[in-house]
Amino acid sequence: xxxxWSVPIAAVAVLALAGGASAxxxxxxxxxxxxxxxxxxxxCPDVTWTGTLEITGSERQDGTYGLVLTSTGVPGVxxxxxxxxxxxxxxxxxxxxxxxxGVLVVCTAGETILSGWDAGVGIIAKNExxxxxxxxxxxxxxxxWVHGRTYQDGSFxxxxxxxxxxxxxxxxxxxxxxxx
Length: 180
Prior knowledge:
Elements: H1 6-20, E1 27-35, E2 47-55, E3 63-71, E4 77-79, E5 82-92, E6 112-123, E7 128-138, E8 149-161, E9 167-179
């Protein structure tokens, strides 16, 4: 009896081509973010965090970009000392501007070149957070990154004490990674 190998060989060939189809290399950057002190008020009531993403070591994407994180509307969940969150993000060609009180003047700066969503966890007692997400739209120097994965982690650098005595992070610094 003759065996038919054409289907399995074709399937392996398709998988091999799909796996090697991406010429994209991982991109690493650093983030410096602050809580929007104007959260809930104009001109950017929905922007939760804002700051910069700096990428070096990648020819096409090197630069300092504006980064905005906006809560998805799903309330964060406190689980003991962990805070679970979901957010949308937008990377823009320019860092955003602030007034003398540190409140955003405009909600976007330049062109949005990378956007998507992420979800993660913050552990206040350990002063750290991490999240993972996906790219939904990409253009300019990030063209071709749709469906890429994003990762962010770091440490909280500033806190305020809330009325109930619980510290709330208002600034963080960390790393950003984009992988195909």
